[in-house]
Protein backbone atom coordinates (compact mmCIF):
# COMPACT_ATOMS: atom_id res chain seq x y z
CA UNK A 1 0.00 0.00 0.00
CA UNK A 2 2.81 2.40 0.86
CA UNK A 3 4.52 1.65 -2.48
CA UNK A 4 1.27 2.35 -4.33
CA UNK A 5 0.77 5.62 -2.41
CA UNK A 6 4.30 6.74 -3.28
CA UNK A 7 3.72 6.00 -6.98
CA UNK A 8 0.48 7.97 -6.91
CA UNK A 9 2.16 10.83 -5.02
CA UNK A 10 5.10 10.89 -7.48
CA UNK A 11 2.71 10.80 -10.44
CA UNK A 12 0.70 13.65 -8.92
CA UNK A 13 3.81 15.78 -8.50
CA UNK A 14 4.85 15.03 -12.07
CA UNK A 15 1.43 15.99 -13.40
CA UNK A 16 1.49 19.16 -11.31
CA UNK A 17 4.90 20.06 -12.75
CA UNK A 18 3.64 19.31 -16.22
CA UNK A 19 0.60 21.51 -15.65
CA UNK A 20 2.80 24.37 -14.50
CA UNK A 21 5.40 23.95 -17.23
CA UNK A 22 3.82 26.83 -19.18
CA UNK A 23 5.42 29.14 -16.64
CA UNK A 24 8.84 28.00 -17.85
CA UNK A 25 8.48 26.88 -21.44
CA UNK A 26 8.01 29.21 -24.38
CA UNK A 27 4.88 28.66 -26.49
CA UNK A 28 4.87 28.82 -30.31
CA UNK A 29 3.56 31.63 -32.52
CA UNK A 30 4.15 31.88 -36.26
CA UNK A 31 4.45 35.06 -38.31
CA UNK A 32 4.84 35.44 -42.07
CA UNK A 33 6.41 38.73 -43.15
CA UNK A 34 6.10 39.70 -46.83
CA UNK A 35 9.07 41.99 -47.45
CA UNK A 36 8.38 42.01 -51.21
CA UNK A 37 4.80 43.29 -50.85
CA UNK A 38 5.10 46.81 -49.40
CA UNK A 39 1.74 48.26 -48.41
CA UNK A 40 1.96 52.04 -48.29
CA UNK A 41 3.40 54.45 -45.80
CA UNK A 42 2.86 54.42 -42.02
CA UNK A 43 2.06 58.04 -41.28
CA UNK A 44 4.34 59.49 -38.64
CA UNK A 45 1.30 61.36 -37.33
CA UNK A 46 -0.14 58.26 -35.66
CA UNK A 47 2.63 58.82 -33.11
CA UNK A 48 1.07 62.11 -32.00
CA UNK A 49 0.44 63.35 -28.47
CA UNK A 50 -2.18 65.32 -26.56
CA UNK A 51 -1.87 68.24 -24.11
CA UNK A 52 -5.11 69.35 -22.49
CA UNK A 53 -5.74 71.91 -19.78
CA UNK A 54 -6.37 69.08 -17.36
CA UNK A 55 -4.80 68.60 -13.97
CA UNK A 56 -1.03 69.07 -14.09
CA UNK A 57 -0.54 68.58 -17.82
CA UNK A 58 -0.03 72.24 -18.77
CA UNK A 59 0.47 74.14 -15.53
CA UNK A 60 3.06 72.44 -13.30
CA UNK A 61 3.71 70.07 -16.20
CA UNK A 62 4.83 71.55 -19.50
CA UNK A 63 4.66 75.11 -18.22
CA UNK A 64 6.37 76.34 -15.06
CA UNK A 65 6.64 80.03 -16.01
CA UNK A 66 9.63 82.16 -16.97
CA UNK A 67 10.53 82.89 -13.33
CA UNK A 68 10.76 79.26 -12.27
CA UNK A 69 14.00 77.85 -10.84
CA UNK A 70 13.43 74.83 -13.09
CA UNK A 71 15.43 75.37 -16.32
CA UNK A 72 12.99 76.53 -18.99
CA UNK A 73 12.59 78.28 -22.31
CA UNK A 74 9.83 80.89 -22.22
CA UNK A 75 8.32 79.04 -19.29
CA UNK A 76 8.39 75.53 -20.86
CA UNK A 77 10.56 72.95 -19.08
CA UNK A 78 13.78 72.22 -20.97
CA UNK A 79 13.89 68.60 -19.81
CA UNK A 80 10.41 67.95 -21.24
CA UNK A 81 11.40 69.62 -24.51
CA UNK A 82 14.48 67.38 -24.78
CA UNK A 83 12.55 64.22 -23.92
CA UNK A 84 9.80 64.84 -26.45
CA UNK A 85 12.25 65.83 -29.19
CA UNK A 86 13.89 62.44 -28.63
CA UNK A 87 10.54 60.82 -29.48
CA UNK A 88 10.30 62.79 -32.74
CA UNK A 89 6.73 63.66 -31.81
CA UNK A 90 5.01 64.60 -35.09
CA UNK A 91 2.05 66.57 -33.72
CA UNK A 92 0.62 67.82 -30.44
CA UNK A 93 -3.11 68.38 -29.83
CA UNK A 94 -4.28 71.33 -27.69
CA UNK A 95 -6.18 72.77 -25.70
CA UNK A 96 -8.49 69.74 -25.30
CA UNK A 97 -10.39 67.48 -25.00
CA UNK A 98 -13.49 68.56 -23.21
CA UNK A 99 -11.71 71.79 -22.24
CA UNK A 100 -11.60 72.83 -25.91
CA UNK A 101 -15.33 73.52 -26.08
CA UNK A 102 -15.08 75.73 -23.00
CA UNK A 103 -12.00 77.62 -24.12
CA UNK A 104 -12.11 81.09 -25.68
CA UNK A 105 -8.79 81.70 -27.35
CA UNK A 106 -8.86 85.50 -27.13
CA UNK A 107 -8.64 85.21 -23.33
CA UNK A 108 -5.18 83.68 -23.76
CA UNK A 109 -3.42 86.25 -25.96
CA UNK A 110 -1.90 89.66 -25.23
CA UNK A 111 0.06 90.76 -22.14
CA UNK A 112 -0.11 88.00 -19.54
CA UNK A 113 -0.89 90.38 -16.71
CA UNK A 114 -3.98 91.58 -18.55
CA UNK A 115 -5.46 88.19 -19.42
CA UNK A 116 -8.68 87.29 -17.58
CA UNK A 117 -8.76 84.29 -15.29
CA UNK A 118 -11.11 81.39 -16.01
CA UNK A 119 -12.51 78.49 -14.03
CA UNK A 120 -11.81 75.08 -15.52
CA UNK A 121 -15.28 73.72 -14.84
CA UNK A 122 -14.55 70.49 -16.71
CA UNK A 123 -11.48 69.38 -14.79
CA UNK A 124 -11.33 69.98 -11.06
CA UNK A 125 -12.99 73.39 -10.89
CA UNK A 126 -9.60 75.13 -10.60
CA UNK A 127 -8.95 78.73 -11.58
CA UNK A 128 -6.46 79.31 -14.39
CA UNK A 129 -4.81 82.64 -15.21
CA UNK A 130 -4.54 82.03 -18.97
CA UNK A 131 -0.77 82.57 -18.84
CA UNK A 132 -0.40 79.67 -21.28
CA UNK A 133 -2.27 80.55 -24.47
CA UNK A 134 -2.04 80.43 -28.25
CA UNK A 135 1.40 82.08 -28.60
CA UNK A 136 2.82 79.96 -25.78
CA UNK A 137 1.56 76.71 -27.27
CA UNK A 138 2.52 77.42 -30.88
CA UNK A 139 5.98 78.66 -29.92
CA UNK A 140 6.41 75.55 -27.77
CA UNK A 141 5.59 73.44 -30.82
CA UNK A 142 8.38 75.24 -32.66
CA UNK A 143 10.79 74.32 -29.86
CA UNK A 144 9.63 70.71 -30.12
CA UNK A 145 9.85 70.66 -33.90
CA UNK A 146 6.29 69.36 -34.04
CA UNK A 147 3.09 70.29 -35.85
CA UNK A 148 0.34 71.84 -33.72
CA UNK A 149 -3.17 70.39 -33.80
CA UNK A 150 -5.68 72.96 -32.55
CA UNK A 151 -9.07 71.81 -31.29
CA UNK A 152 -11.70 74.48 -32.02
CA UNK A 153 -14.61 75.45 -29.80
CA UNK A 154 -17.93 74.54 -31.46
CA UNK A 155 -19.73 73.92 -28.16
CA UNK A 156 -19.77 77.22 -26.25
CA UNK A 157 -18.06 79.24 -28.98
CA UNK A 158 -19.24 80.86 -32.20
CA UNK A 159 -18.48 80.49 -35.89
CA UNK A 160 -16.92 83.96 -35.85
CA UNK A 161 -14.66 83.05 -32.93
CA UNK A 162 -13.23 79.98 -34.66
CA UNK A 163 -12.95 81.80 -37.97
CA UNK A 164 -11.00 84.57 -36.21
CA UNK A 165 -8.66 82.05 -34.63
CA UNK A 166 -7.79 80.54 -38.00
CA UNK A 167 -7.11 84.01 -39.38
CA UNK A 168 -5.10 85.02 -36.30
CA UNK A 169 -2.64 82.14 -36.52
CA UNK A 170 -2.52 81.64 -40.30
CA UNK A 171 -3.19 84.82 -42.29
CA UNK A 172 -0.08 86.51 -43.63
CA UNK A 173 -1.68 89.61 -45.14
CA UNK A 174 -3.26 92.57 -43.38
CA UNK A 175 -6.49 91.88 -41.50
CA UNK A 176 -7.97 92.67 -38.08
CA UNK A 177 -6.78 89.34 -36.68
CA UNK A 178 -3.31 89.36 -38.24
CA UNK A 179 -2.89 92.94 -37.02
CA UNK A 180 -3.78 91.75 -33.52
CA UNK A 181 -1.26 88.93 -33.79
CA UNK A 182 1.48 91.37 -34.80
CA UNK A 183 0.49 93.68 -31.94
CA UNK A 184 0.89 90.73 -29.59
CA UNK A 185 4.43 90.09 -30.78
CA UNK A 186 4.17 87.54 -33.59
CA UNK A 187 5.00 89.01 -36.99
CA UNK A 188 4.74 85.89 -39.14
CA UNK A 189 1.86 83.41 -39.06
CA UNK A 190 2.38 79.92 -37.68
CA UNK A 191 0.54 78.24 -40.58
CA UNK A 192 -1.29 75.65 -38.48
CA UNK A 193 -2.52 72.77 -40.63
CA UNK A 194 -4.50 70.48 -38.29
CA UNK A 195 -7.82 71.77 -36.93
CA UNK A 196 -10.43 69.93 -34.92
CA UNK A 197 -13.97 71.17 -35.51
CA UNK A 198 -15.14 70.57 -31.96
CA UNK A 199 -14.43 67.66 -29.62
CA UNK A 200 -16.76 64.87 -28.51
CA UNK A 201 -19.81 66.68 -29.84
CA UNK A 202 -21.85 63.66 -28.71
CA UNK A 203 -20.94 64.40 -25.06
CA UNK A 204 -18.98 67.16 -23.32
CA UNK A 205 -18.76 69.10 -26.59
CA UNK A 206 -22.49 69.84 -26.65
CA UNK A 207 -24.47 66.59 -26.25
CA UNK A 208 -25.46 66.84 -29.91
CA UNK A 209 -27.08 64.21 -32.09
CA UNK A 210 -25.02 63.26 -35.14
CA UNK A 211 -27.67 64.78 -37.41
CA UNK A 212 -27.42 68.11 -35.58
CA UNK A 213 -23.62 68.03 -35.53
CA UNK A 214 -23.49 67.52 -39.31
CA UNK A 215 -25.17 70.90 -39.74
CA UNK A 216 -22.92 72.55 -37.18
CA UNK A 217 -19.80 71.07 -38.78
CA UNK A 218 -20.78 72.29 -42.23
CA UNK A 219 -21.45 75.79 -40.88
CA UNK A 220 -18.20 76.08 -38.91
CA UNK A 221 -16.05 74.49 -41.61
CA UNK A 222 -17.40 76.87 -44.24
CA UNK A 223 -15.94 79.87 -42.43
CA UNK A 224 -12.64 78.24 -41.47
CA UNK A 225 -10.90 79.81 -44.43
CA UNK A 226 -7.28 79.43 -45.44
CA UNK A 227 -4.79 77.37 -47.40
CA UNK A 228 -4.00 73.73 -46.72
CA UNK A 229 -6.25 73.33 -43.69
CA UNK A 230 -6.79 69.75 -42.52
CA UNK A 231 -10.25 69.80 -40.91
CA UNK A 232 -11.14 67.00 -38.53
CA UNK A 233 -14.77 66.31 -37.63
CA UNK A 234 -15.72 65.28 -34.10
CA UNK A 235 -16.20 61.54 -34.57
CA UNK A 236 -17.63 58.55 -32.78
CA UNK A 237 -17.43 57.43 -29.20
CA UNK A 238 -16.04 53.89 -29.39
CA UNK A 239 -18.60 51.78 -31.35
CA UNK A 240 -21.16 54.42 -32.33
CA UNK A 241 -21.22 53.37 -35.97
CA UNK A 242 -24.38 55.37 -36.62
CA UNK A 243 -22.38 58.52 -35.84
CA UNK A 244 -19.76 57.68 -38.47
CA UNK A 245 -22.42 56.76 -41.04
CA UNK A 246 -24.31 60.01 -40.46
CA UNK A 247 -21.17 62.13 -40.86
CA UNK A 248 -20.04 60.32 -44.01
CA UNK A 249 -23.50 60.70 -45.55
CA UNK A 250 -24.12 64.28 -44.45
CA UNK A 251 -20.80 66.08 -44.90
CA UNK A 252 -19.48 66.54 -48.46
CA UNK A 253 -16.08 64.90 -48.71
CA UNK A 254 -14.44 68.07 -49.96
CA UNK A 255 -15.40 69.81 -46.70
CA UNK A 256 -13.49 67.52 -44.32
CA UNK A 257 -10.19 65.68 -44.16
CA UNK A 258 -10.62 63.43 -41.15
CA UNK A 259 -13.09 61.93 -38.69
CA UNK A 260 -12.06 61.39 -35.09
CA UNK A 261 -12.47 58.24 -32.99
CA UNK A 262 -12.01 58.00 -29.21
CA UNK A 263 -11.39 54.73 -27.36
CA UNK A 264 -9.75 54.11 -23.97
CA UNK A 265 -8.55 50.91 -22.30
CA UNK A 266 -9.62 49.83 -18.78
CA UNK A 267 -11.07 46.81 -16.94
CA UNK A 268 -14.51 48.45 -17.10
CA UNK A 269 -15.70 52.04 -17.44
CA UNK A 270 -17.53 51.99 -14.09
CA UNK A 271 -14.77 50.21 -12.17
CA UNK A 272 -11.42 51.14 -13.66
CA UNK A 273 -9.32 49.78 -10.82
CA UNK A 274 -5.88 50.86 -9.61
CA UNK A 275 -3.02 51.82 -11.90
CA UNK A 276 -0.66 49.80 -9.68
CA UNK A 277 -1.54 46.64 -7.75
CA UNK A 278 -4.14 45.38 -10.23
CA UNK A 279 -5.22 41.75 -10.43
CA UNK A 280 -4.59 39.47 -13.37
CA UNK A 281 -8.29 39.65 -14.23
CA UNK A 282 -8.08 43.45 -14.33
CA UNK A 283 -4.97 43.18 -16.50
CA UNK A 284 -6.73 40.76 -18.87
CA UNK A 285 -9.87 42.91 -19.16
CA UNK A 286 -7.71 45.97 -19.87
CA UNK A 287 -5.91 44.18 -22.67
CA UNK A 288 -9.24 43.01 -24.06
CA UNK A 289 -10.42 46.63 -24.41
CA UNK A 290 -7.04 47.65 -25.87
CA UNK A 291 -7.13 44.92 -28.52
CA UNK A 292 -10.69 45.92 -29.39
CA UNK A 293 -9.15 48.90 -31.20
CA UNK A 294 -8.61 46.62 -34.21
CA UNK A 295 -12.31 45.76 -34.43
CA UNK A 296 -13.35 49.40 -34.03
CA UNK A 297 -11.03 50.62 -36.77
CA UNK A 298 -12.11 47.81 -39.09
CA UNK A 299 -15.82 48.54 -38.67
CA UNK A 300 -15.58 52.35 -38.81
CA UNK A 301 -13.29 52.09 -41.85
CA UNK A 302 -15.79 49.79 -43.60
CA UNK A 303 -18.47 52.49 -43.23
CA UNK A 304 -16.07 55.15 -44.49
CA UNK A 305 -15.17 52.95 -47.47
CA UNK A 306 -18.78 53.00 -48.68
CA UNK A 307 -18.70 56.77 -49.14
CA UNK A 308 -14.96 57.26 -49.64
CA UNK A 309 -13.60 54.24 -51.54
CA UNK A 310 -10.41 56.12 -52.44
CA UNK A 311 -9.69 56.58 -48.70
CA UNK A 312 -9.17 60.33 -48.89
CA UNK A 313 -10.68 60.90 -45.44
CA UNK A 314 -8.43 59.94 -42.54
CA UNK A 315 -9.55 58.10 -39.45
CA UNK A 316 -8.07 60.17 -36.63
CA UNK A 317 -7.81 58.32 -33.31
CA UNK A 318 -7.02 61.50 -31.41
CA UNK A 319 -7.69 60.07 -27.95
CA UNK A 320 -6.50 56.63 -26.86
CA UNK A 321 -4.71 55.07 -23.90
CA UNK A 322 -5.21 53.52 -20.49
CA UNK A 323 -7.62 55.06 -17.99
CA UNK A 324 -7.51 53.90 -14.37
CA UNK A 325 -8.33 55.25 -10.91
CA UNK A 326 -6.37 58.32 -9.84
CA UNK A 327 -3.53 57.95 -7.39
CA UNK A 328 -4.55 58.08 -3.73
CA UNK A 329 -4.57 61.60 -2.33
CA UNK A 330 -4.72 63.38 -5.69
CA UNK A 331 -7.56 65.52 -7.08
CA UNK A 332 -10.05 63.16 -8.81
CA UNK A 333 -10.51 65.77 -11.53
CA UNK A 334 -6.79 65.76 -12.39
CA UNK A 335 -6.67 62.15 -13.73
CA UNK A 336 -3.14 61.57 -12.42
CA UNK A 337 -2.14 57.90 -12.53
CA UNK A 338 1.04 55.84 -12.47
CA UNK A 339 2.32 54.18 -15.63
CA UNK A 340 3.34 50.51 -15.56
CA UNK A 341 4.31 47.64 -17.83
CA UNK A 342 0.57 47.16 -18.41
CA UNK A 343 0.52 50.61 -20.03
CA UNK A 344 3.48 49.55 -22.15
CA UNK A 345 1.39 46.59 -23.35
CA UNK A 346 -1.47 48.94 -24.27
CA UNK A 347 0.92 51.19 -26.18
CA UNK A 348 2.73 48.43 -28.04
CA UNK A 349 -0.38 46.55 -29.16
CA UNK A 350 -2.25 49.73 -30.10
CA UNK A 351 0.61 51.10 -32.18
CA UNK A 352 0.89 47.75 -33.97
CA UNK A 353 -2.83 48.02 -34.78
CA UNK A 354 -2.41 51.56 -36.10
CA UNK A 355 0.60 50.55 -38.21
CA UNK A 356 -1.33 47.68 -39.76
CA UNK A 357 -4.30 49.96 -40.56
CA UNK A 358 -2.10 52.53 -42.29
CA UNK A 359 -4.50 52.80 -45.23
CA UNK A 360 -7.11 54.58 -43.09
CA UNK A 361 -5.51 55.63 -39.78
CA UNK A 362 -3.39 58.70 -40.52
CA UNK A 363 -3.31 60.57 -37.20
CA UNK A 364 -3.53 59.44 -33.57
CA UNK A 365 -2.90 61.09 -30.21
CA UNK A 366 -1.97 59.30 -27.01
CA UNK A 367 -3.84 60.74 -24.02
CA UNK A 368 -2.04 62.47 -22.47
CA UNK A 369 1.50 63.75 -22.65
CA UNK A 370 2.41 64.87 -19.11
CA UNK A 371 0.92 63.94 -15.70
CA UNK A 372 -2.50 62.86 -17.06
CA UNK A 373 -3.83 59.37 -17.90
CA UNK A 374 -1.29 57.29 -19.89
CA UNK A 375 1.41 59.93 -19.72
CA UNK A 376 4.84 59.49 -21.25
CA UNK A 377 6.27 61.96 -18.71
CA UNK A 378 5.57 62.50 -15.00
CA UNK A 379 6.86 65.45 -13.00
CA UNK A 380 7.23 66.32 -9.32
CA UNK A 381 8.58 69.83 -8.84
CA UNK A 382 12.11 69.78 -10.34
CA UNK A 383 12.05 66.01 -10.87
CA UNK A 384 10.96 64.32 -14.09
CA UNK A 385 10.68 60.69 -15.15
CA UNK A 386 10.06 58.83 -18.38
CA UNK A 387 7.34 56.19 -18.15
CA UNK A 388 7.31 52.69 -19.69
CA UNK A 389 4.94 54.12 -22.32
CA UNK A 390 7.58 56.72 -23.22
CA UNK A 391 10.07 53.94 -23.87
CA UNK A 392 7.62 52.12 -26.14
CA UNK A 393 7.06 55.27 -28.19
CA UNK A 394 10.82 55.77 -28.41
CA UNK A 395 11.42 52.17 -29.53
CA UNK A 396 8.63 52.39 -32.12
CA UNK A 397 9.71 55.70 -33.66
CA UNK A 398 11.55 53.65 -36.31
CA UNK A 399 8.14 53.05 -37.92
CA UNK A 400 7.41 56.75 -38.48
CA UNK A 401 6.89 57.42 -42.21
CA UNK A 402 8.33 53.96 -43.01
CA UNK A 403 6.76 51.57 -45.53
CA UNK A 404 4.45 48.96 -44.03
CA UNK A 405 5.46 45.35 -44.60
CA UNK A 406 2.40 43.09 -44.25
CA UNK A 407 2.45 40.36 -41.59
CA UNK A 408 0.19 37.38 -41.00
CA UNK A 409 0.19 36.32 -37.36
CA UNK A 410 -0.97 32.98 -36.00
CA UNK A 411 -0.73 33.60 -32.29
CA UNK A 412 -1.03 31.38 -29.28
CA UNK A 413 -3.68 32.35 -26.78
CA UNK A 414 -3.38 34.16 -23.48
CA UNK A 415 -5.95 32.36 -21.32
CA UNK A 416 -7.52 33.57 -18.09
CA UNK A 417 -10.45 31.57 -16.77
CA UNK A 418 -12.78 30.77 -19.65
CA UNK A 419 -11.58 33.63 -21.85
CA UNK A 420 -8.67 34.01 -24.21
CA UNK A 421 -6.89 36.68 -26.23
CA UNK A 422 -4.17 36.45 -28.89
CA UNK A 423 -0.93 36.67 -26.92
CA UNK A 424 1.21 38.20 -29.66
CA UNK A 425 0.82 41.23 -31.89
CA UNK A 426 3.29 42.24 -34.58
CA UNK A 427 3.89 45.00 -37.12
CA UNK A 428 6.78 45.56 -39.49
CA UNK A 429 8.16 48.27 -41.75
CA UNK A 430 11.07 49.24 -43.97
CA UNK A 431 12.63 52.67 -43.48
CA UNK A 432 14.27 55.05 -45.93
CA UNK A 433 17.70 53.51 -45.23
CA UNK A 434 16.46 50.08 -46.27
CA UNK A 435 16.39 48.70 -42.71
CA UNK A 436 13.51 46.44 -41.73
CA UNK A 437 12.00 46.80 -38.25
CA UNK A 438 9.72 44.31 -36.53
CA UNK A 439 7.87 45.20 -33.33
CA UNK A 440 6.47 42.26 -31.38
CA UNK A 441 4.44 42.33 -28.16
CA UNK A 442 3.67 39.40 -25.87
CA UNK A 443 0.82 40.38 -23.55
CA UNK A 444 0.68 37.02 -21.74
CA UNK A 445 1.32 37.70 -18.10
CA UNK A 446 2.66 34.20 -17.39
CA UNK A 447 4.22 32.60 -20.46
CA UNK A 448 7.09 33.38 -22.76
CA UNK A 449 6.33 33.18 -26.47
CA UNK A 450 8.61 31.57 -29.02
CA UNK A 451 7.86 33.36 -32.29
CA UNK A 452 8.91 31.92 -35.63
CA UNK A 453 9.00 34.63 -38.30
CA UNK A 454 9.17 33.47 -41.92
CA UNK A 455 10.92 36.18 -43.92
CA UNK A 456 9.46 36.14 -47.41
CA UNK A 457 10.78 38.22 -50.31
CA UNK A 458 14.07 39.41 -48.82
CA UNK A 459 17.35 38.09 -47.49
CA UNK A 460 18.83 39.43 -44.28
CA UNK A 461 22.30 38.97 -42.83
CA UNK A 462 22.09 40.55 -39.39
CA UNK A 463 19.55 41.15 -36.64
CA UNK A 464 19.77 43.49 -33.68
CA UNK A 465 17.15 44.17 -31.05
CA UNK A 466 15.95 45.99 -27.97
CA UNK A 467 13.51 44.82 -25.31
CA UNK A 468 11.30 46.45 -22.70
CA UNK A 469 10.50 44.02 -19.91
CA UNK A 470 10.39 43.74 -16.13
CA UNK A 471 9.75 41.24 -13.36
CA UNK A 472 6.15 42.25 -12.61
CA UNK A 473 3.32 43.57 -14.77
CA UNK A 474 2.81 46.57 -12.49
CA UNK A 475 6.50 47.54 -12.34
CA UNK A 476 6.97 51.26 -12.98
CA UNK A 477 9.39 54.12 -12.62
CA UNK A 478 9.39 56.40 -9.59
CA UNK A 479 11.09 59.69 -8.85
CA UNK A 480 13.41 57.75 -6.54
CA UNK A 481 14.10 55.09 -9.21
CA UNK A 482 13.40 56.80 -12.54
CA UNK A 483 15.25 54.14 -14.59
CA UNK A 484 13.77 51.04 -12.97
CA UNK A 485 11.99 50.15 -16.25
CA UNK A 486 13.91 50.98 -19.42
CA UNK A 487 14.89 49.32 -22.71
CA UNK A 488 17.83 46.95 -22.88
CA UNK A 489 19.71 45.11 -25.60
CA UNK A 490 17.85 42.01 -26.78
CA UNK A 491 19.80 38.87 -27.63
CA UNK A 492 16.94 36.40 -27.94
CA UNK A 493 16.66 36.50 -31.74
CA UNK A 494 18.24 33.98 -34.08
CA UNK A 495 18.39 34.47 -37.86
CA UNK A 496 18.92 31.34 -39.96
CA UNK A 497 17.88 30.15 -43.44
CA UNK A 498 15.20 32.78 -44.03
CA UNK A 499 13.64 32.31 -40.63
CA UNK A 500 13.84 34.40 -37.50
CA UNK A 501 13.15 32.80 -34.14
CA UNK A 502 12.47 35.12 -31.24
CA UNK A 503 11.76 34.25 -27.62
CA UNK A 504 9.77 37.03 -25.95
CA UNK A 505 9.30 36.94 -22.15
CA UNK A 506 5.90 37.56 -20.53
CA UNK A 507 4.43 41.08 -20.92
CA UNK A 508 7.37 42.28 -22.98
CA UNK A 509 8.00 44.31 -26.11
CA UNK A 510 10.77 43.62 -28.59
CA UNK A 511 11.80 45.78 -31.56
CA UNK A 512 14.15 44.11 -34.04
CA UNK A 513 16.26 45.68 -36.79
CA UNK A 514 17.18 43.52 -39.79
CA UNK A 515 19.76 44.37 -42.41
From TrEMBL:
Which keywords describe this protein according to UniProt?
Carbohydrate metabolism, Glycosidase, Hydrolase, Signal
InterPro entries, alphabetized: Alpha-L-AF_C (IPR010720), ASD1_cat (IPR055235), GH (IPR017853), Glyco_hydro_b (IPR013780)
Query: Its GO biological process terms?
Result: L-arabinose metabolic process; polysaccharide catabolic process
Instruction: Report the catalytic activity.
Output: Hydrolysis of terminal non-reducing alpha-L-arabinofuranoside residues in alpha-L-arabinosides
- GO molecular function terms attached to this record: alpha-L-arabinofuranosidase activity
Q: Which SUPFAM superfamilies match?
A: (Trans)glycosidases (SSF51445), Glycosyl hydrolase domain (SSF51011)
Provide the leader sequence positions.
Answer: 1-26
Q: Where are the bilayer-spanning segments?
A: none
Q: Which residues does the UniProt record annotate as the domain Alpha-L-arabinofuranosidase C-terminal?
A: 318-508
Q: What is its EC number?
A: 3.2.1.55
Q: Which domain of life is it from?
A: Bacteria
Q: Which PANTHER family match?
A: ALPHA-L-ARABINOFURANOSIDASE C-RELATED, INTRACELLULAR EXO-ALPHA-L-ARABINOFURANOSIDASE 2
Partners and quaternary state?
A: Homohexamer; trimer of dimers.
What the record says about family reads: Belongs to the glycosyl hydrolase 51 family.
- Protein's name in the database: non-reducing end alpha-L-arabinofuranosidase
Amino acid sequence: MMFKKNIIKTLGISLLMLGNSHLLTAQQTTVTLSADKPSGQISKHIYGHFAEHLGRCIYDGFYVGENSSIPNTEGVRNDIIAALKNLNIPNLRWPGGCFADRYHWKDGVGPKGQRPSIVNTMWGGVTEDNSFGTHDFLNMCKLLGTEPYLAGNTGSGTVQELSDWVQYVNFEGKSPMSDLRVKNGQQKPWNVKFWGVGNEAWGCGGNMTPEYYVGEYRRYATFMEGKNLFKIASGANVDDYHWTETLMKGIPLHMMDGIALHHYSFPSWDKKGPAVGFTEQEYFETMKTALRMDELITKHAAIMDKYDPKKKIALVVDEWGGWFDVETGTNPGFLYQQNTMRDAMIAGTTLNIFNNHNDRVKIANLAQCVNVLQAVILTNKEKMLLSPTYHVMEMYKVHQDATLLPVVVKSDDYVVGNEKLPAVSVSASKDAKGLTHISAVNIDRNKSESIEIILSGAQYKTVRGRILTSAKADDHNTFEKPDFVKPAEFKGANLKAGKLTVKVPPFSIVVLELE
